[in-house]
Amino acid sequence: MSKQYETVIGLEVHVELATRTKIFCGCSTAFGGAPNTHTCPVCTGMPGSLPVLNKKVVDYALRVGLAANCKINQLCKFDRKNYFYPDNPQNYQISQLYLPICHDGYVEIDTAAGKKKIGIHEIHMEEDAGKLIHDEWEDCSLVDYNRSGVPLIEIVSEPDMRSAEEVIAYLEKLRMMIQYLGASDCKLQEGSMRADVNLSVREVGSEKFGTRTEMKNLNSFKAIGRAIEGERARQIELIEEGKAVVQETRRWDDNKEYSYAMRSKEDAKDYRYFPDPDLPPVHISDEWIDRIVKSMPEFQPEKQARYVEQYGLPQYDAGILTGSKKLSDLFEETTALCGKPKKVANWLMGETLRLLKENGQEPEDLQFSPKHLASLIELAEAGSVNNQVAKEVFEQIFAEDVDPEAYVEEHGLKTVNDTGLLEETARKVLENNPGPVEQYKSGKTKVLGFLVGQVMKEMKGKANPAAAGELLQKLLSE
């Protein structure tokens, strides 16, 4: 009988915090920007420059830690992690090893087998490194220090996950929680949330952990899922062949769906950590923690319950809308403007999610304003545009945030409410379609849809389909 294997997974998740300036200097953290323009002597590691801690970083780290049920180290310190790397300008990274700001927490995820707690070993603050750009043409590497010194928190989980599904549920829960806190936008494609996967396999029933590898370069949930499956299969194959799994850092290539070794795994002793002499310890008072607790937002479960009660939405709709901070904000702001919660929910869950999927985008990428969606809903409700036109106009709102009223005017898309013209067109359609008229009169009433379609065609889509249907029924019964 073949052996059964269990996968054991722990994650290190790096999250770029939403501060306007870097962790130890006043440079901008904005994404993009010409290379090396968001820099100063501190974040480029110039001799003699001194770091000054950005208090907002501590605020955000506390918010995330408290939301993740962590204990707080009210006296925490920064340490130097020493390693030489071209994108690391001081030749060390300022991080926290001995006294991280948060420890011993958990987040709860939903799995096929019910709820499960994933332990959080610690959360620490640190600075990001710069970015190496490899120029294939010139056969050289260039370094951009814009990202150097951008504040990060690293969330280190316990090895509590057993499948790709659990890993993705955990990451989605973390991402949603952090977005609700306003601590980061967590855009994987921009690198503001990055996950390294520590994975080992062992025989089912064994208490002893197998040898783990760490996989880097994972910038989408799909890539993470594929990397876990690939690495699990690779390790099982080695064990079955009687070979040893080597503890190392591997890089996942999502195009080739294959991971390859980058370097043997370092240990903490390899980094020669020591307390940073330039930064005093951080004292976190009870008052500071109380202030953070009082400023906590309404999280998804409470928001979902409120949507059902306040807006009369079904549980399912409320769950989808509150699953993304961006969608829930759009829903609330649009509803406040037009007062039609169910209609707003339908537009967001229908057309909005469809277009996001078609464009390979996330809700966080939405650019249109609540004002323009509310205005479109009001046009449709008043019968000024029919359903088909409303969808066409929404595509323009989605793409370019156009003003629907101006767009409808400009493109002559307003529904024609001229009853004389409608009747004239309906009579003409009945005259030109004797076959379907006979079918209708002999009891095949489904043919009415075809006749309504002909009226819409004649009036270039500007008729009200419901009015056209009523009028045709009236004319046919004469």
UniProtKB/TrEMBL annotation:
Gene3D superfamilies: 1.10.10.410, GatB domain, N-terminal subdomain (1.10.150.380). Heterotrimer of A, B and C subunits. Keywords: ATP-binding, Ligase, Nucleotide-binding, Protein biosynthesis. Its EC number is 6.3.5.-. Residues 329-476 form the Asn/Gln amidotransferase domain. Allows the formation of correctly charged Asn-tRNA(Asn) or Gln-tRNA(Gln) through the transamidation of misacylated Asp-tRNA(Asn) or Glu-tRNA(Gln) in organisms which lack either or both of asparaginyl-tRNA or glutaminyl-tRNA synthetases. The reaction takes place in the presence of glutamine and ATP through an activated phospho-Asp-tRNA(Asn) or phospho-Glu-tRNA(Gln). The keyword Zinc does not apply. This is Aspartyl/glutamyl-tRNA(Asn/Gln) amidotransferase subunit B. One of its GO terms (molecular function) is ATP binding. It comes from the Bacteria. The lineage of its organism: Bacteria, Bacillati, Bacillota, Clostridia, Lachnospirales. GO terms for biological process: glutaminyl-tRNAGln biosynthesis via transamidation; translation. Belongs to the GatB/GatE family. GatB subfamily. It catalyses: L-glutamyl-tRNA(Gln) + L-glutamine + ATP + H2O = L-glutaminyl-tRNA(Gln) + L-glutamate + ADP + phosphate + H(+); L-aspartyl-tRNA(Asn) + L-glutamine + ATP + H2O = L-asparaginyl-tRNA(Asn) + L-glutamate + ADP + phosphate + 2 H(+). The keyword Methyltransferase does not apply.
